[in-house]
Design a protein that fits this description.
This is Alkaline phosphatase. The protein has 101 residues and is mostly helical. Helices cover 70% and strands 0% of the residues. It has one domain (6-98): SMc04008-like fold.
Length: 101
């Protein structure tokens, strides 16, 4: 991003992250396994990356807190409300594309 200072770049990137999280909250039909199979990351990855960033800065954030931030609710609630069992085809595609991710 030529010509943009570091602070503005960080603000833009943060806005993109917030928009991505909001979009995923609005699309619970997009199952994590489908996201993994298509893009190689899912909501859990985002929450792990958020926790990693907090850890790198010496901030206290639990795995549950980072997941709640990404999912917009406790993870167990989201799973109960929105997560369906993976089909054999989804599991096979995951095993093939992720190599044990």
């Amino acid at each position: 991003m030529d010509g943009i200072d570091a602070k503005t770049q960080t603000e833009l990137e943060a806005a993109v992250f917030r928009r991505l999280v909001a979009h995923l909250r609005e699309r619970p039909d997009a199952q994590n396994i489908d996201l993994m199979n298509l893009a190689g990351f899912c909501r859990n990855c985002l929450s792990n990356w958020l926790k990693d960033a907090a850890d790198e800065r010496g901030l206290t954030m639990s795995k549950d807190q980072s997941r709640e931030h990404v999912y917009g609710m406790p993870y167990e609630d989201w799973k109960r409300l929105h997560q369906s069992d993976a089909t054999p085809a989804q599991r096979a595609a995951f095993a093939k594309s992720q190599g044990g991710h």
